[in-house]
Protein backbone atom coordinates (compact mmCIF):
# COMPACT_ATOMS: atom_id res chain seq x y z
CA UNK A 1 0.00 0.00 0.00
CA UNK A 2 1.29 3.46 -0.84
CA UNK A 3 1.55 6.03 1.93
CA UNK A 4 -1.01 8.82 1.80
CA UNK A 5 0.56 11.66 -0.14
CA UNK A 6 2.89 13.95 1.81
CA UNK A 7 3.50 17.63 1.09
CA UNK A 8 5.85 18.42 -1.79
CA UNK A 9 9.34 19.36 -0.57
CA UNK A 10 12.65 20.02 -2.33
CA UNK A 11 15.08 17.10 -2.01
CA UNK A 12 18.17 17.72 0.11
CA UNK A 13 21.30 18.44 -1.99
CA UNK A 14 23.06 15.29 -0.78
CA UNK A 15 20.19 13.15 -1.98
CA UNK A 16 20.04 14.98 -5.32
CA UNK A 17 23.70 14.27 -5.99
CA UNK A 18 23.38 10.63 -4.88
CA UNK A 19 20.44 10.09 -7.23
CA UNK A 20 22.29 11.77 -10.09
CA UNK A 21 25.42 9.77 -9.32
CA UNK A 22 23.50 6.53 -9.60
CA UNK A 23 22.71 7.37 -13.20
CA UNK A 24 26.34 7.99 -14.12
CA UNK A 25 28.07 5.31 -12.05
CA UNK A 26 26.36 1.95 -11.90
CA UNK A 27 29.28 -0.35 -11.14
CA UNK A 28 33.10 -0.42 -11.18
CA UNK A 29 33.13 -0.84 -14.96
CA UNK A 30 31.16 2.38 -15.51
CA UNK A 31 33.54 4.25 -13.20
CA UNK A 32 36.48 2.78 -15.11
CA UNK A 33 34.99 3.91 -18.40
CA UNK A 34 34.64 7.48 -17.16
CA UNK A 35 38.20 7.52 -15.79
CA UNK A 36 39.58 6.14 -19.04
CA UNK A 37 37.65 8.76 -21.04
CA UNK A 38 39.14 11.49 -18.86
CA UNK A 39 42.65 10.09 -19.29
CA UNK A 40 42.20 10.01 -23.06
CA UNK A 41 40.75 13.52 -23.12
CA UNK A 42 43.86 14.68 -21.24
CA UNK A 43 46.01 13.75 -24.23
CA UNK A 44 47.64 10.74 -22.56
CA UNK A 45 50.00 8.61 -24.60
CA UNK A 46 50.17 5.86 -21.97
CA UNK A 47 47.84 4.83 -19.18
CA UNK A 48 47.74 2.23 -16.48
CA UNK A 49 44.66 0.72 -14.83
CA UNK A 50 44.91 -1.00 -11.45
CA UNK A 51 41.94 -2.84 -10.01
CA UNK A 52 41.52 -4.52 -6.66
CA UNK A 53 38.84 -7.20 -6.23
CA UNK A 54 37.37 -6.63 -9.66
CA UNK A 55 37.06 -2.92 -8.90
CA UNK A 56 34.97 -3.49 -5.76
CA UNK A 57 38.00 -2.63 -3.63
CA UNK A 58 39.47 0.05 -5.88
CA UNK A 59 39.67 1.33 -9.45
CA UNK A 60 42.69 3.40 -10.36
CA UNK A 61 43.64 5.06 -13.65
CA UNK A 62 46.98 6.78 -14.09
CA UNK A 63 47.82 8.85 -17.18
CA UNK A 64 50.66 10.97 -18.52
CA UNK A 65 48.33 13.63 -19.89
CA UNK A 66 48.06 17.38 -19.30
CA UNK A 67 47.28 17.21 -15.58
CA UNK A 68 44.92 19.42 -13.55
CA UNK A 69 46.13 22.71 -12.00
CA UNK A 70 46.09 22.48 -8.19
CA UNK A 71 43.61 25.35 -7.85
CA UNK A 72 41.17 23.58 -10.18
CA UNK A 73 41.11 20.28 -8.28
CA UNK A 74 38.03 21.22 -6.20
CA UNK A 75 36.23 22.19 -9.43
CA UNK A 76 37.00 18.81 -10.97
CA UNK A 77 34.81 17.28 -8.23
CA UNK A 78 31.98 19.78 -8.66
CA UNK A 79 28.85 18.78 -10.59
CA UNK A 80 28.41 20.31 -14.04
CA UNK A 81 31.92 21.76 -14.01
CA UNK A 82 34.05 20.94 -17.05
CA UNK A 83 37.02 22.28 -18.97
CA UNK A 84 35.84 20.66 -22.18
CA UNK A 85 33.02 22.82 -23.49
CA UNK A 86 32.04 26.41 -22.84
CA UNK A 87 28.99 26.89 -25.06
CA UNK A 88 26.38 25.13 -27.16
CA UNK A 89 28.39 25.43 -30.33
CA UNK A 90 31.31 23.58 -28.79
CA UNK A 91 28.91 20.92 -27.56
CA UNK A 92 27.93 20.14 -31.13
CA UNK A 93 31.53 19.85 -32.21
CA UNK A 94 32.67 18.05 -29.07
CA UNK A 95 35.88 16.23 -29.86
CA UNK A 96 36.30 15.11 -26.26
CA UNK A 97 34.77 11.97 -24.84
CA UNK A 98 33.44 13.83 -21.81
CA UNK A 99 31.65 17.14 -21.53
CA UNK A 100 28.98 16.83 -18.86
CA UNK A 101 31.21 17.44 -15.89
CA UNK A 102 29.43 14.79 -13.89
CA UNK A 103 31.66 11.75 -13.58
CA UNK A 104 34.12 12.79 -10.87
CA UNK A 105 31.37 14.53 -8.89
CA UNK A 106 29.31 11.34 -9.05
CA UNK A 107 32.23 9.26 -7.80
CA UNK A 108 32.85 11.71 -4.97
CA UNK A 109 29.19 11.36 -3.93
CA UNK A 110 29.06 7.56 -3.79
CA UNK A 111 32.61 6.44 -2.96
CA UNK A 112 35.99 7.59 -1.78
CA UNK A 113 38.03 9.35 -4.42
CA UNK A 114 41.59 10.63 -4.50
CA UNK A 115 43.09 12.68 -7.34
CA UNK A 116 46.80 13.33 -7.55
CA UNK A 117 47.82 15.50 -10.47
CA UNK A 118 50.63 17.62 -11.81
CA UNK A 119 50.88 19.96 -14.80
CA UNK A 120 54.15 20.37 -16.65
CA UNK A 121 56.20 23.04 -14.90
CA UNK A 122 53.96 23.10 -11.80
CA UNK A 123 53.95 21.34 -8.43
CA UNK A 124 51.85 18.26 -7.77
CA UNK A 125 48.69 18.38 -5.68
CA UNK A 126 46.22 15.99 -4.12
CA UNK A 127 42.52 16.18 -3.33
CA UNK A 128 40.41 13.67 -1.50
CA UNK A 129 36.66 13.29 -1.07
CA UNK A 130 34.43 10.71 0.54
CA UNK A 131 30.63 10.44 0.37
CA UNK A 132 30.33 14.04 -0.76
CA UNK A 133 32.75 15.50 1.82
CA UNK A 134 35.63 17.19 0.01
CA UNK A 135 38.91 17.78 1.87
CA UNK A 136 41.31 20.67 1.17
CA UNK A 137 43.91 20.43 -1.62
CA UNK A 138 47.39 19.48 -0.42
CA UNK A 139 50.77 19.69 -2.15
CA UNK A 140 52.39 16.36 -2.98
CA UNK A 141 55.12 14.90 -5.16
CA UNK A 142 53.74 13.54 -8.43
CA UNK A 143 54.59 12.52 -11.97
CA UNK A 144 53.27 14.72 -14.75
CA UNK A 145 49.71 13.65 -15.44
CA UNK A 146 46.88 12.45 -13.27
CA UNK A 147 46.14 9.48 -11.08
CA UNK A 148 42.59 8.98 -9.89
CA UNK A 149 41.76 6.29 -7.35
CA UNK A 150 38.22 5.28 -6.48
CA UNK A 151 37.72 3.13 -3.39
CA UNK A 152 34.75 1.28 -1.92
CA UNK A 153 32.13 2.18 -4.50
CA UNK A 154 28.69 2.66 -2.86
CA UNK A 155 30.06 2.16 0.67
CA UNK A 156 27.59 4.83 1.80
CA UNK A 157 24.69 3.32 -0.18
CA UNK A 158 24.50 -0.29 1.08
CA UNK A 159 21.37 -0.99 -0.98
CA UNK A 160 23.34 -0.18 -4.16
CA UNK A 161 26.47 -2.02 -3.04
CA UNK A 162 24.38 -5.18 -2.63
CA UNK A 163 23.56 -5.12 -6.33
CA UNK A 164 27.19 -5.41 -7.34
CA UNK A 165 28.31 -8.88 -8.42
CA UNK A 166 31.25 -11.05 -7.46
CA UNK A 167 34.81 -9.72 -8.00
CA UNK A 168 35.22 -12.13 -10.95
CA UNK A 169 32.09 -10.84 -12.69
CA UNK A 170 32.89 -7.18 -12.02
CA UNK A 171 36.45 -7.80 -13.23
CA UNK A 172 35.15 -9.29 -16.48
CA UNK A 173 33.08 -6.16 -17.12
CA UNK A 174 36.05 -3.94 -16.33
CA UNK A 175 38.24 -5.95 -18.68
CA UNK A 176 35.63 -5.47 -21.44
CA UNK A 177 35.70 -1.71 -20.93
CA UNK A 178 39.49 -1.79 -21.00
CA UNK A 179 39.53 -3.76 -24.27
CA UNK A 180 36.99 -1.46 -25.91
CA UNK A 181 39.17 1.49 -25.01
CA UNK A 182 42.21 -0.30 -26.39
CA UNK A 183 40.41 -0.90 -29.70
CA UNK A 184 39.20 2.68 -30.00
CA UNK A 185 42.60 4.23 -29.18
CA UNK A 186 45.38 2.26 -30.85
CA UNK A 187 47.83 5.15 -30.45
CA UNK A 188 47.75 4.88 -26.64
CA UNK A 189 49.76 2.28 -24.70
CA UNK A 190 47.64 0.58 -22.04
CA UNK A 191 48.20 -1.75 -19.12
CA UNK A 192 45.70 -3.50 -16.90
CA UNK A 193 46.66 -4.82 -13.47
CA UNK A 194 44.33 -6.85 -11.27
CA UNK A 195 45.14 -7.65 -7.65
CA UNK A 196 48.82 -6.99 -8.31
CA UNK A 197 49.04 -9.05 -11.51
CA UNK A 198 49.59 -7.65 -14.99
CA UNK A 199 46.62 -9.01 -16.98
CA UNK A 200 46.66 -7.15 -20.30
CA UNK A 201 49.19 -4.97 -22.00
CA UNK A 202 49.08 -3.26 -25.38
CA UNK A 203 51.94 -1.27 -26.83
CA UNK A 204 51.27 1.69 -29.10
CA UNK A 205 50.13 0.53 -32.52
CA UNK A 206 52.27 2.37 -35.06
CA UNK A 207 50.19 1.19 -38.05
CA UNK A 208 48.17 4.05 -39.56
CA UNK A 209 45.05 1.90 -39.88
CA UNK A 210 45.05 0.72 -36.24
CA UNK A 211 44.25 -2.84 -37.28
CA UNK A 212 47.26 -4.37 -35.53
CA UNK A 213 45.84 -3.24 -32.19
CA UNK A 214 42.45 -4.58 -33.18
CA UNK A 215 43.94 -7.99 -33.94
CA UNK A 216 45.93 -7.96 -30.68
CA UNK A 217 42.89 -7.15 -28.56
CA UNK A 218 40.56 -9.59 -30.28
CA UNK A 219 43.12 -12.35 -30.11
CA UNK A 220 44.51 -15.00 -32.38
CA UNK A 221 41.33 -17.12 -32.42
CA UNK A 222 39.39 -14.25 -33.98
CA UNK A 223 42.08 -12.69 -36.12
CA UNK A 224 42.98 -15.97 -37.80
CA UNK A 225 39.51 -16.05 -39.39
CA UNK A 226 39.15 -12.34 -39.98
CA UNK A 227 38.98 -10.36 -43.20
CA UNK A 228 40.24 -6.77 -43.24
CA UNK A 229 37.84 -3.99 -44.26
CA UNK A 230 39.09 -0.66 -45.49
CA UNK A 231 36.85 1.63 -47.50
CA UNK A 232 36.20 5.32 -47.96
CA UNK A 233 32.62 6.01 -48.99
CA UNK A 234 31.87 9.69 -49.32
CA UNK A 235 32.76 11.32 -46.01
CA UNK A 236 32.71 7.98 -44.17
CA UNK A 237 35.79 5.83 -43.60
CA UNK A 238 35.14 2.22 -42.58
CA UNK A 239 38.00 0.06 -41.29
CA UNK A 240 38.13 -3.09 -39.29
CA UNK A 241 38.04 -6.84 -39.20
CA UNK A 242 35.07 -9.07 -40.00
CA UNK A 243 34.77 -12.84 -39.72
CA UNK A 244 34.46 -15.19 -42.63
CA UNK A 245 30.88 -16.49 -42.88
CA UNK A 246 32.17 -19.92 -41.85
CA UNK A 247 33.44 -18.44 -38.58
CA UNK A 248 30.08 -16.95 -37.57
CA UNK A 249 28.76 -18.21 -34.25
CA UNK A 250 25.46 -18.48 -32.42
CA UNK A 251 26.62 -15.89 -29.89
CA UNK A 252 27.28 -12.26 -30.74
CA UNK A 253 30.47 -12.23 -28.68
CA UNK A 254 32.62 -10.10 -30.97
CA UNK A 255 30.58 -7.16 -32.21
CA UNK A 256 32.39 -3.89 -31.78
CA UNK A 257 31.36 -0.59 -33.34
CA UNK A 258 33.63 2.40 -32.87
CA UNK A 259 32.51 5.77 -34.20
CA UNK A 260 35.06 8.60 -34.12
CA UNK A 261 37.04 6.82 -31.40
CA UNK A 262 34.02 6.03 -29.27
CA UNK A 263 32.87 2.48 -28.62
CA UNK A 264 29.11 2.61 -29.15
CA UNK A 265 26.01 0.49 -29.58
CA UNK A 266 24.43 1.33 -32.87
CA UNK A 267 21.55 -0.30 -34.69
CA UNK A 268 22.23 1.40 -37.99
CA UNK A 269 25.72 -0.01 -38.28
CA UNK A 270 24.80 -3.41 -36.78
CA UNK A 271 21.93 -3.72 -39.22
CA UNK A 272 24.12 -2.69 -42.14
CA UNK A 273 26.55 -5.49 -41.27
CA UNK A 274 23.77 -8.06 -40.88
CA UNK A 275 22.32 -7.03 -44.23
CA UNK A 276 25.71 -7.59 -45.86
CA UNK A 277 25.90 -11.10 -44.40
CA UNK A 278 22.25 -11.90 -45.21
CA UNK A 279 23.01 -14.08 -48.23
CA UNK A 280 25.93 -15.94 -46.70
CA UNK A 281 24.80 -16.56 -43.12
CA UNK A 282 22.23 -19.12 -42.12
CA UNK A 283 19.60 -19.05 -39.42
CA UNK A 284 20.50 -17.59 -36.08
CA UNK A 285 24.24 -17.32 -36.70
CA UNK A 286 25.78 -14.00 -35.75
CA UNK A 287 28.51 -12.25 -37.71
CA UNK A 288 31.58 -11.37 -35.64
CA UNK A 289 33.13 -8.02 -36.39
CA UNK A 290 34.92 -4.94 -35.16
CA UNK A 291 34.39 -1.86 -37.29
CA UNK A 292 35.89 1.58 -36.84
CA UNK A 293 33.93 4.37 -38.51
CA UNK A 294 35.28 7.84 -38.95
CA UNK A 295 33.25 10.76 -40.21
CA UNK A 296 33.26 14.55 -39.83
CA UNK A 297 31.92 15.55 -36.41
CA UNK A 298 29.12 17.64 -37.89
CA UNK A 299 27.63 14.46 -39.37
CA UNK A 300 27.22 12.69 -36.04
CA UNK A 301 25.69 13.80 -32.74
CA UNK A 302 27.42 12.30 -29.72
CA UNK A 303 25.33 14.12 -27.14
CA UNK A 304 22.33 11.80 -27.08
CA UNK A 305 23.14 9.37 -24.29
CA UNK A 306 24.31 10.10 -20.73
CA UNK A 307 26.76 7.19 -20.81
CA UNK A 308 27.89 8.30 -24.29
CA UNK A 309 27.34 4.80 -25.63
CA UNK A 310 25.03 5.88 -28.45
CA UNK A 311 25.40 8.34 -31.28
CA UNK A 312 22.98 9.72 -33.82
CA UNK A 313 23.98 10.03 -37.46
CA UNK A 314 22.81 13.01 -39.46
CA UNK A 315 22.09 10.67 -42.38
CA UNK A 316 21.68 7.20 -40.99
CA UNK A 317 20.55 5.59 -44.23
CA UNK A 318 23.77 6.75 -45.93
CA UNK A 319 25.77 5.21 -43.08
CA UNK A 320 23.75 2.00 -43.31
CA UNK A 321 24.37 1.73 -47.04
CA UNK A 322 28.05 2.54 -46.76
CA UNK A 323 28.65 -0.08 -44.07
CA UNK A 324 26.65 -2.65 -45.96
CA UNK A 325 28.53 -1.92 -49.15
CA UNK A 326 31.96 -2.02 -47.50
CA UNK A 327 31.26 -5.36 -45.82
CA UNK A 328 29.56 -6.89 -48.88
CA UNK A 329 32.55 -6.12 -51.04
CA UNK A 330 34.95 -7.84 -48.68
CA UNK A 331 32.66 -10.88 -48.36
CA UNK A 332 32.19 -11.08 -52.13
CA UNK A 333 35.94 -11.01 -52.71
CA UNK A 334 36.50 -13.68 -50.04
CA UNK A 335 33.60 -15.74 -51.46
CA UNK A 336 35.13 -15.56 -54.92
CA UNK A 337 38.45 -16.82 -53.59
CA UNK A 338 36.83 -19.73 -51.73
CA UNK A 339 33.72 -20.31 -53.81
CA UNK A 340 33.62 -24.03 -53.13
CA UNK A 341 33.29 -23.72 -49.36
CA UNK A 342 29.79 -23.37 -47.93
CA UNK A 343 28.87 -22.31 -44.42
CA UNK A 344 27.85 -25.36 -42.46
P1 LIG B 1 33.98 15.89 -17.94
O1 LIG B 1 34.95 14.84 -18.37
O2 LIG B 1 32.62 15.67 -18.51
O3 LIG B 1 34.49 17.29 -18.12
P2 LIG B 1 34.56 14.86 -15.27
O4 LIG B 1 33.79 14.94 -14.00
O5 LIG B 1 34.86 13.52 -15.79
O6 LIG B 1 33.75 15.72 -16.34
O7 LIG B 1 35.91 15.70 -15.11
C1 LIG B 1 35.86 17.06 -14.69
C2 LIG B 1 37.08 17.84 -15.18
O8 LIG B 1 38.25 17.37 -14.51
C3 LIG B 1 37.40 17.66 -16.66
O9 LIG B 1 36.66 18.58 -17.46
C4 LIG B 1 38.90 17.93 -16.70
O10 LIG B 1 39.18 19.31 -16.78
C5 LIG B 1 39.39 17.43 -15.36
N1 LIG B 1 39.97 16.07 -15.43
C6 LIG B 1 39.38 14.91 -15.03
N2 LIG B 1 40.20 13.86 -15.23
C7 LIG B 1 41.34 14.35 -15.78
C8 LIG B 1 42.58 13.76 -16.22
N3 LIG B 1 42.78 12.44 -16.13
N4 LIG B 1 43.52 14.60 -16.73
C9 LIG B 1 43.31 15.93 -16.83
N5 LIG B 1 42.16 16.54 -16.43
C10 LIG B 1 41.18 15.76 -15.91
MG1 LIG C 1 34.80 12.84 -17.82
List the helices and strands and how they pair.
Elements: H1 13-24, H2 28-41, E1 46-52, E2 58-63, H3 73-76, H4 88-92, H5 103-110, E3 112-118, E4 125-130, E5 133-134, E6 138-139, E7 145-151, H6 158-161, H7 167-184, E8 189-194, E9 197-202, H8 211-218, H9 220-223, E10 226-233, E11 236-243, E12 255-259, E13 262-264, H10 267-277, E14 289-294, E15 300-301, E16 312-313, H11 316-337
Parallel strand pairs: 1-8, 12-14
Antiparallel strand pairs: 1-2, 2-7, 3-4, 3-7, 4-5, 4-6, 8-9, 10-11, 11-14, 12-13, 15-16
Helix pairs in contact: 1-5, 2-7, 10-11
Keywords: DNA damage, DNA repair
GO molecular function, one term: mismatched DNA binding
Family: Belongs to the DNA mismatch repair MutL/HexB family.
Work out the oligomeric state of the chains in this entry: single chain
Shape: globular
The helix tally amounts to 11
Q: In percent, how helical is the residue content?
A: 25-40%
Small molecules (ligands, ions, cofactors) in the structure: adenosine-5'-diphosphate, magnesium ion
What is the gyration radius calculated from CA atoms?
22 Å
Secondary-structure arrangement, i.e. CATH architecture of the largest domain? 2-Layer Sandwich
Query: What is the fold-level CATH name, i.e. the topology of the largest domain?
Result: Heat Shock Protein 90
Describe what this molecule looks like in 3D.
With 344 residues, the protein is an alpha+beta fold. It has two domains: 13-202, Heat Shock Protein 90, CATH 3.30.565; 211-337, Ribosomal Protein S5, domain 2 (2-Layer Sandwich), CATH 3.30.230. It contains eleven helices and 16 strands. It has helices at residues 13-24, 28-41, 73-76, 88-92, 103-110, 158-161, 167-184, 211-218, 220-223, 267-277, 316-337; strands at residues 46-52, 58-63, 112-118, 125-130, 133-134, 138-139, 145-151, 189-194, 197-202, 226-233, 236-243, 255-259, 262-264, 289-294, 300-301, 312-313. The strands form three sheets. Strands 1, 2, 3, 4, 5, 6, 7, 8 and 9 form a nine-stranded mixed β-sheet that branches. A five-stranded mixed β-sheet has the order 10-11-14-12-13, sandwiched between helices. A two-stranded antiparallel ribbon has the order 15-16. β10 and β11 (236-243) form a beta hairpin. It is globular. The chain starts with 12 loop residues before the first helix and ends in a 7-residue tail after the last helix. The structure holds adenosine-5'-diphosphate and magnesium ion (MG). Magnesium ion (MG) is lined by residues 34, 37-38, 98, 103.
